[in-house]
Amino acid sequence: RLLEADSKSMRSMNGSRRNSGSSLVSSSSASSNLSHLEEDTWILWGRIVNEWDEWRKKKEKLLKVRPELVFFFFLCNPILTPLEKIHVSLPRADSERRQELVFPRRPRSKCPHQHQNRWPGPTSCPRKDLFGSYFFSFQAYSLVDREVGYCQGSAFIVGLLLMQMPEEEAFCVFVRLMQEYRLRELFKPSMAELGLCIYQFEYLLQEQLPELNIHFRSQSFLTSMYASSWFLTLFLTTFPLPVATRVFDIFMYEGLEIVFRVGMALLQFNQAELVQLDMEGMSQYFQKVIPHQFDSCPDKLILRAFQVKYNPKKMKSRLEKEYATIKNKEMEEQIEIK
User: Fold this and answer.
1) Could you give the 3-state DSSP secondary structure of residue 142?
2) Helix axes 257-274, 298-305, angle to 10 degrees
3) DSSP H or E stretch at residue 162
4) Relative to the CA of 301, which of 9, 61, 109, 132 has its CA 20 to 30 Å away?
5) Three-class SS of residue 52?
């Protein structure tokens, strides 16, 4: 709506109507009964998709709060890794894996995590009819990245991708997300990166919501008890899909920062209620109340999230060093005990 109200955007959009036939999303994509305004919106978004880098620089603040996941696939295009690139990147000596990954959905090698890739129920795959694609995506990824293999939290991410695109493309996007969005570190067997994220989130909590932080500590309500799933599934297990996909959309844009922001926004919204509850009451509140607070107004959550104070440099440089020092000290103590 903000883009539509921008006269410069509308002028550039209207001027592009003559060339809209070459757009990825043109007026011909819309049904014949669309109003002129809806047609204009399709053309505008088609222009945004085709000239993504330019629009991202010009309208960065507006594009951070996109209205829905309609253009999810197009926004994935800049990070799609073609199967051929994955194929070429494998060691030349590993000819069997190189050959089988040309068609990742039917890999011939035995998956090292095959016993884990059974139907895990509705909690792990958003739609049961997608389970076949879900299974083969994980089987293929287990062959690409044997160290990480299968982690149940990543199943939700794969499930969402499969709801948006064919399984080959979902596989490519998933590989790229794992490699370049910190997800691979989160899903390693040691889950050391998850510990770092929890440590960084606790710092934000202590700094911005000290009263709530004291209450959590007094009730022995650990951050990992409610925030681990936020980082591992990007809120896909917390919110219904219409809200969760909004968060995931922004995650595609700027990475894990949005998880910290949304998490802090949730605590800000609910601080008054949480400080009145004991440990069991808070657990129930996180499970039953928080997930449905923004079903009818996800904008409220997203806008509040972008008001959260977040310093990327401090989170990366200072807090990462502090956490590394703490873990090294713990390791030394364990060695002494042994």
Assistant:
1) helix
2) 110
3) helix 152-162
4) 9
5) helix
Q: What are phi and psi of 91, to 5 degrees?
A: -55, 140
Q: What is the CATH number of domain 67-106+123-187?
A: 1.10.8
Distance between CA 43 and CA 22 in Å, rounded?
A: 11
State residue 313's pLDDT score: 87
Per-domain residue ranges of the chain: 67-106+123-187, 192-337
pLDDT the model gives residue 4: 66
Residues in the chain where the model's pLDDT stays below 50: 13, 16-31, 66-71, 73-75, 77-82, 84-95, 98-99, 101-125, 128
Q: Which of 94, 308, 280 is nearest to 205 (CA)?
A: 308
Closest Cα to residue 189, out of 152, 154, 146, 148? 148
**Overall pTM > 0.90:** no
User: Cα separation of 107 and 141, whole Å?
Assistant: 10
CA distance 277 to 228: 21
pLDDT at 73: 47
Give helix 7-15 / helix 36-50 axis angle, nearest 10°.
90
Please write down the long-range contacts of 97-104, taking CB distance under 8 Å and 24 or more positions apart.
Answer: 97/143, 100/143, 101/140, 101/143, 101/144, 104/136, 104/137, 104/140, 104/143, 104/144, 104/168, 104/171
The domain defined by 192-337 folds into: Cyclin A; domain 1 (1.10.472)
Q: Are 240 and 292 in contact (CB under 8 A)?
A: yes
The total number of residues shown for the chain amounts to 338
Residue 152 has phi, psi (to 5 degrees) of -60, -35
| Residues 6+ away with beta carbon under 8 Å from 10 | 4, 40, 44
pLDDT digits (tens, 9 = 90+) for 245-302: 889 988 987 889 999 999 999 999 999 999 999 999 999 999 999 999 999 888 999 9
The CA-based angle 88-93-95, given to 5 degrees, is 65
